[in-house]
Each structure stands twice: as structure tokens, then as C-alpha cells.
Amino acid sequence: MDSQAVFDALETVCRNNISLLCGASDLPYGAVAERLVTCMREIQEHGRALEPVVASFTAVYHHYDFDEETPGNGYRTLVKVLLSCLLHIIHKGRYITGNYNGAFFRADHNTCEMEAYCSALCQLRALLHLAQRLLNDNEYGQLYAQHDVELSRRFVQEYSSMHKACFYGRCLGFQFSPTLRPFLQTVVISMVSYGETYGKQQSGLGMAALSLLTSGKYVIDPELRGAEFERITQNLDMQFWKSFWNLTESGFITGFNRISSNPVQVNLTLTLPPVPLRLPLASDPRLSATVSPPIAHSGPGPVHMRLISCELRQGQDSEELQAFSRTDPPPISVSHLPWVQKQPRSPWLLIHFHGGGFVAQTSKSHENYLRSWSKELNVPVLSVDYSLSPEAPFPRALEECFYAYCWALNNCHLLGSTAERVCLAGDSAGGNLCITVSMKAIASGIRVPDGIMAAYPATLLTTDASPSRLLTLIDPLLPLGVLAKCINAYAGVDSRTLQPAVESSSLSSLSRDTAMLLSDLTYGASNWIQSFLDPMRPSGGARPQSQRQNEARRAFTLSAAPNSDGHLDYPEGFAPLRSECLAFVHQTSCPIIRNPFVSPLLAPNNLLRGLPPVHIVASALDALLDDSVMFAKKLRAMGQPVSLTVVEDLPHGFLSLYQLAKDTEVAAEICVAQLREIFEKPTHGLRKRQKLEETFQSTNPSG
Question: What is the pLDDT of residue 260?
């Protein structure tokens, strides 16, 4: 994308619109035309100011890539997002000049669209300014301000007060693949509807019904949706996020996923009792190490897992494995079915740790792609359902994942594998656990996995500023307020036991709320329909759109006086829009977050040396992109085998979306290719090690 051509086109579009609207006295929509002229002049001003800024970034941002073949870092991403916003403005501006005199032209609607993108452009200009500060203050090649506590504090402060609602309304998801935007709109509408009903004394079904009915007004009124989403993402508590994200665990959604995903012959939930394990030392399998069961915070406890296999393999139908099954009622052994042919044990074993910010979800919500992996790689998959924060903060999840890994090595024969090659895979928080489990294996002296596939891993659990972390000010799936809550929960900063929501089956309250919501829907739908019939009628809310925009600008725009309000200095005459709904973000300052087993990016070399090949798959539009780039650079500088692949136009969490769009399918295929590379790598010296381990097993059958 040629940035100079984009800025030239923007200037032309602004001039054409201003000339059209100011040069013809016979054009209709007088007040709306004035708003549009004001908006286009603001866009023109932003464009002229941003052109040299973008040129300064494009001249140097290649120095921050992993290598020449892997263009990707937060500076590139910010420029990419800005240009994407400008292209939307150019497209809309050309439409306006070509259709303004048309009989079906909706002047107010198109003006509102342009005003929304103007607000987004203003905020992106602020982000580029913050990125300039990072570029000037950080060391050459460094993407994180790890030693600049003041700059990171100011970053959090800016997030707390900057206006973000414009990115969640009409402009929602403009930076992502077009095929994903309807899905993102559904997620945002669902979230704000769920937030409105959250805390009401309703059953799960009642809350779902209320959320469905409430959603109508957020479809009709994008500005209302954006404002409500901003409020929710900034200040609702952790219980809300756990509750909302765990909707993916509901029977309806998981049932649909199972229908649409690959069928598997084995899908068992297992529970491991908390008993010590003995494993051979990697340096000398004749010696052993003892691995204790998880004990942090709540004492010894079981570890839950799920075994998925596209084919039934030897050991998977054994009575010994069935004894660990926690399926209720007990599963029927598929070996009793005459048409199922039992396959020999696979030489491979895939151990998976799911994402969810350490606070939500289980293997069930990740089943769709795990089933696909099992089929495409023809490998058993063991996914660990580790305990979640804030009830079980660090190091409980790490202890459970490490214990499950050790148990799988000792009992691979029950899982349908000979474990000649073992791979760890995980996304987001799960990617972090893949790395830290391997670090614990190194520290314990036991066998390390043969490779790691980490998708968009979190390697630095802090609120330190980086260019890609600036995306948390605009990202609908990973806002900074939510990221900070997850980090603090995992670090144990907020370890209070969360109270379950009160359930009630009161039909009277459901009827009362439903009546109110139907009233809202009727009123909103009436306005929406009238906006088509009467182009001069404002759309979507009780107040005219122009009034809402003007009030917002009066409320949000601050003086540009240097640091007079405690914010970062901005160029003279410019200030970002500010929000009336301030966020209360608890900056991550707990010492635990700098523990190398929490933030492996901060780990000393001696803890990382000896890691297996690490294959990282990141997204250019992910706020955690710089985590991946810097961690890959660190491993490469140490001489550790590492690869980094950066996919385009996708959000954080794209693995869970792989069935929704072609782009996510391609990204998921890249992950599978990396897993295949780990499994198919030549196994020099493996037979000797396996024979020694078999000798150990025969002399220690209880391990």
C-alpha cells in the first residue's frame, strides 16, 4: 500500500467534497451540508499533519521486524491501520461527490458515517503521536518501554481518558478482514446487550432472552452501541468477562461447533488424581525426578483434561484410561462397536493449553479447531483444563499444565501414542503456558517437548507500552482495560472469590423487562424506518445525530496546552477526543508479573536456553504482536531455534474463528503446517532415548 498515493487521494477527495458543497447554492440539506464541510476540513487537516509522520515511520519501521522475510511490528501495524481508515474515508468521500444530487441519497446517514471516521482519524493521529514518543525513547530495535515506567504510566492514563466509542460504532472493525466485520458486529452487540442485562436476577435462559431483545436498539443506533461498549469494556468487573466469555461453553454453541466441525471417535474428559509422579532425567534416564501434584493456593487437587482423537487407537479404550474418565454417564467403549477399527498407537502426541486470558474458557470452547488438528495431523490431542484466575492465580495453572504434561509422558500408551515426538500447542494465554511448561521441564531436568507452536502468545504480562499495545485503545476484542484485568487476576492482585450470579426463574420480571425492551425496539425501528422515508429526519435515537456529535465534541475535546491536564504533550493546536466515561485501569505493578514463569520475555537466558524449536504464529493486527516479535528476536539472539509467521488482517484469537472466514482458515492452516513440521522433523537419537525410558518404566511401573 503506497502511503503517498493514499494521502494524495485523500487530499483530492477532501477538496472535491468541499468544493461541491460550498460552490453550489442550489444543493439541498443545508445544515447537513455545513456539517459535512466542517468534517471534510477536519479530515483534510488531519491528513496533512499525518503525512510527514507516516513518512518518518515508513523510513525506519523495517528495523523492528524479526527479519527481512517477516515484515511485522507495532509501528508497521499502526501505519497499516491508519491507511485503512483513510481508504474508508476516500471511498465514502467519492460516493458522496458522485451521489449527493441523487434522489435516494441519505445525507444525514452519510454525514454521520464521515463524522465517525473523522473522529477515528483524530484518535489514530493521537496514537501515532504516542508511537513517535516510543520510537524516540526506546532503544534501537526495542519495541517495549520496559524501563520507562513514566511513559508506560502515561500510556495507561491516555487509555483511561481517551474517547474510544467511535471505534465500536460505525467504524467497528474497519481494520480487519471484511469477511469478519459482521461477526465482530455480532460480538459487540451481544456484549453490550449482555452487559445491559448482566446482574439482573434472571435464569440463564431469561438473560439470553433479554439480551436478544435488547440487541435491536444497538443495531439501529451505532453511536449508542459504541458508547455502551466503551462503558462496558472499561469498567465492568471480572465476573462479567468470565460470564460473557464462558457463553462459548453453553450447550447450544458447543453443540453447533461439534456439528460443524470434524467428527472424532474419541472425546473423553479425564481427571487425574493428585499423586506424585516419577520421570526419568533427560541427561540420564536411569535416574529419576519426582514431580509433585499441583498445590498452590488450594492444596493438592485433581487436574482435568480432554482427550480428542479422530480415530480409536490402542490404549484409548482400556479400562485403565476409563478409570480416569469423568464423563457422566460413563462412556461406552467404542471398541464394542463392530464397525470401528482400532488403530495402532501414533508416534506423535499433541498437548494443548487453551487461551482465554487465564480467566475463562476450557477445552470445550476450543474443540472446533482441536478436532480439525486431530484429523489433519492424524494425532491424539490432549487438552488441559487448568484452573482459572482470579480464584486460582499463578502458579496454579502452570503447575497443573506441567503436571498434565508429565503424566502424559508417563502414560502416553493410554492416550494412543508412543510419544516419539511430543508437541505443545496453545493460543494466547495457552501459548504462554506452552513456553513456561517447557521452561519448568528444563529446570526439572526432565524431557522437554520436541517443539512448541504458540499462536499469538502473551509473553509479557504487563501494561508496558509498545506500538502494538496502542491498539488496545481501538481493539474490540482486546481492550487495555480487559487485558489489565486478566493480568492482575493471574498475578493474584484480585484473588477474591467471585460470587455466582443469583439465578431466578421469575416470569414476572422477564415479562416486565421484555415489555420495556419491545417498547425500545418499536421506537428505534420507527425512527430507523422514518430515516428512509424522510432524508431530513435524524436516524437512530432520541436526539438528532448532529446534536449528539456536537455534544460529544464539546465534551471530549481538551485544550492542547502542554501537560496542563496531566496528559501527554501533543502538537500545538491538536488534542485527541476525550471520554466522559473514564476507565479505571489498575496498572500492573505487582512483582509477580515480572517473574520469568509469568512473563517469559523477561526470563534470563539460562532459563530459556534448551527450549525446543518454537514456532510462533502472530497477527499483524493483534495488540500482542510485539510480544511475539520481541520474544522471537530474543530466542534467535541466543541461538535458539525459532520461527515467526505474521498473518494479515486478523484479530487476536483468530484460531477460534477459523470456520468463519477464508482468512482465518488460511491462518489455521499455517498453524497446522508448523505442527506438522515439528512432528515430521528427523528424530536423530530418539530410539535410544525411548529404549532407556521404556527400561525406566519397566522398573518403575507405578510412575
Answer: 60
